[in-house]
């Protein structure tokens, strides 16, 4: 039995233990079943939710906001990071601006998003793009700073132009950082997409959770929250798989292999 199998079995054992605790705890009286239904009841509700067409429509809306926002943030973050990182003067000029804007919480932009776009998809995109963009940009800038000076000087000695140095020297060095930024941004994008739907009322799983909460459907709330958690796990697994695929040549993955 390999280490990966052992890790997977331990994870399943921990999950089974959590389900058992959630099933027993409401029956002990420590927590009222009105606020924490047994796991079996949540599971039945989840099964019912999965049979509803409205659920799949909400899931599609959430994935649309997540996917579009993430794609825009990745393209903008990589482009800006490569340009800024390749020009030392530009990096020095923009450093203070980046450090000022980056810590601003995306949820603070919710009033602005509502004023501009109301409850439309654009509100979700504004929050998702803003939060995810910085994850990618910061990683790309770190990657551009990690370029080997000897490799860069060698490229110059072979008379490679700026684009050639970016393609053959900077990009291979920065790609591991880019993939890390994309993986982090994918998780952040999901969090902000659900938050926008929950607070603003944009169509999606977050809006369904808010409706269920307001109507007092507690098991449905937990079922939908469980779906968002499973969605986050799936996105993380896909992001890691893409990262391994893109970096199969990198020495870190070769050591793992």
TrEMBL record:
<feature type="transmembrane region" description="Helical">
    <location>
        <begin position="168"/>
        <end position="201"/>
    </location>
</feature>
<keyword id="KW-1133">Transmembrane helix</keyword>
<feature type="transmembrane region" description="Helical">
    <location>
        <begin position="66"/>
        <end position="88"/>
    </location>
</feature>
<dbReference type="InterPro" id="IPR000515">
    <property type="entry name" value="MetI-like"/>
</dbReference>
<dbReference type="Pfam" id="PF00528">
    <property type="entry name" value="BPD_transp_1"/>
</dbReference>
<keyword id="KW-0472">Membrane</keyword>
<feature type="domain" description="ABC transmembrane type-1">
    <location>
        <begin position="59"/>
        <end position="239"/>
    </location>
</feature>
<keyword id="KW-0812">Transmembrane</keyword>
<feature type="transmembrane region" description="Helical">
    <location>
        <begin position="221"/>
        <end position="239"/>
    </location>
</feature>
<comment type="similarity">
    <text>Belongs to the binding-protein-dependent transport system permease family.</text>
</comment>
<protein>
    <submittedName>
        <fullName>ABC transporter permease</fullName>
    </submittedName>
</protein>
<keyword id="KW-1003">Cell membrane</keyword>
<dbReference type="InterPro" id="IPR035906">
    <property type="entry name" value="MetI-like_sf"/>
</dbReference>
<feature type="transmembrane region" description="Helical">
    <location>
        <begin position="100"/>
        <end position="119"/>
    </location>
</feature>
<keyword id="KW-0813">Transport</keyword>
């Amino acid at each position: 039995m390999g280490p990966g199998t052992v890790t997977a079995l331990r994870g399943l054992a921990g999950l089974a233990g959590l389900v058992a605790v959630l099933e027993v705890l409401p029956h002990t009286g420590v927590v009222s079943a009105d606020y924490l239904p047994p796991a079996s009841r949540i599971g039945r509700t989840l099964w019912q939710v999965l049979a509803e067409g409205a659920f799949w429509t909400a899931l599609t809306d959430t994935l649309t906001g997540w996917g579009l926002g993430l794609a825009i943030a990745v393209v903008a973050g990589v482009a800006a990071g490569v340009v800024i990182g390749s020009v030392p003067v530009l990096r020095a000029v923009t450093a203070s601006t980046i450090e000022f804007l980056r810590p601003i919480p995306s949820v603070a932009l919710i009033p602005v998003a509502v004023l501009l776009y109301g409850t439309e998809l654009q509100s979700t995109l504004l929050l998702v793009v803003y939060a995810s963009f910085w994850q990618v940009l910061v990683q790309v800038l770190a990657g551009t700073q990690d370029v080997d000076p000897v490799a860069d000087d060698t490229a110059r000695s072979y008379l490679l132009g700026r684009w050639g140095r970016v393609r053959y020297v900077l990009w291979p060095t920065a790609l591991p950082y880019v993939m890390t930024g994309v993986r982090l941004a994918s998780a952040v994008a999901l969090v902000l997409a659900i938050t926008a739907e929950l607070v603003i009322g944009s169509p999606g799983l977050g809006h369904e959770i808010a409706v269920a909460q307001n109507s007092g459907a507690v098991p449905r709330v937990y079922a939908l929250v469980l779906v968002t958690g499973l969605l986050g796990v799936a996105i993380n697994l896909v992001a890691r798989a893409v990262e391994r695929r893109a970096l199969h040549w990198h020495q870190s993955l070769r050591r793992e292999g």
